[in-house]
Design brief:
The chain is of the alpha+beta class. The protein has five helices and 16 strands. The chain binds 2-amino-4-trifluoromethylsulfanyl-butyric acid and cobalt (II) ion (2 copies).
């Protein structure tokens, strides 16, 4: 996800146009979206107690390269890994390494691929062994919120409608939506205009038009929404150490609704 810019940059991106893609462009993003989903499907059986996040990163990198995809995060703004692995109170941008997953952890794996210049960006939650009921509830609410947000994606709707639907559901469950990171336009550019906020008001923001492509990637905390970035410059954690969950799809606006480019071919988007 993209760091919510300060006011100056936000003014700049707001005034910059949201790209409209044609059918050929959609096919490019569709292929990238499918590969990222297949990689996130492939890793499911490996997300078990005892594995390190670095091993998962290696596996996803090899899988992606073998299929003609480039890992978009590798080298992006100096990031040195293929995926982000965000465990428990890590909100996003956790860096894979020696951390061993243990029973009861919840982990988000966020992966972005480039195929023929087109980006596909998706993330999911994975439950490691048996997780506790609060963690399960957090994941449920996060997945329900993205579904409600995506149900608002249709021509004539607004970005505010998406954010409103997500925020309303999360807050009704007495959880909170992270404000410091947002979704983003996507295509040939990884993080393009517009910023896709996961909170908002009905009928506000830009109007959705056929051909727009962007991510929706709500981050939901069991506690307060506030985050801080650790000294590694990447890892964002909840300030109150509460659990956090996220899921992400790359989508396009069609003539009558939404196409989810990163839908799981194996039906594994949501953890069991
Ligand atoms: N995939 C993330 C997103 O959803 C971005 C990660 S950038 C990285 O936009 F450099 F941290 F990998
Ligand atoms: Co993203
Ligand atoms: Co992502």
């Amino acid at each position: 996800m993209y760091e919510t810019p300060d006011q100056d940059i936000e003014t700049f991106t707001r005034s910059s146009a949201i790209r409209i893609y044609n059918a050929d462009d959609f096919e490019g993003i569709r292929i990238a979206g499918r590969l990222v989903a297949e990689a996130l499907d492939m890793i499911v059986p490996y997300v078990v107690p005892g594995v390190t996040t670095g091993e998962l990163d290696d596996r996803i990198r090899e899988y992606t390269l073998d299929r003609g995809g480039l890992p978009a995060c590798l080298g992006y703004k100096g990031y040195a890994k293929t995926v982000c692995t965000s465990i428990n109170h890590v909100v996003c941008h956790g860096i894979p390494g020696d951390r061993v997953l243990k029973d009861g952890d919840i982990v988000n794996i966020d992966h972005t691929v480039i195929v023929d210049g087109w980006h596909g960006d998706s993330s999911r939650m994975y439950a490691v062994g048996d997780i506790n009921p609060r963690a399960k509830k957090l994941i449920d609410v996060t997945y329900e919120s993205i579904a409600l947000g995506l149900a608002q994606v249709k021509p004539g709707g607004t970005f505010g409608d998406i954010g409103f639907a997500i925020q309303r559901h999360v807050e009704a469950a007495r959880m909170s939506v992270v404000r410091d990171f947002c979704g983003h336009g996507i295509g040939r550019i990884f993080h393009d205009s517009p910023n896709v906020l996961h909170y908002g008001r009905k009928n506000e923001g830009a109007v959705l038009k056929p051909g727009m492509c962007f991510t929706v990637e709500p981050m939901v905390n069991l506690g307060k929404p506030h985050v801080k970035v650790l000294s590694d410059g990447w890892t964002a954690v909840t300030r109150d150490k509460s659990l956090s969950a996220q899921c992400e799809h790359t989508v396009g606006v069609t003539e009558d609704g939404v196409e989810i480019f990163s839908a799981s071919p194996a039906g594994l988007f949501r953890p069991n």
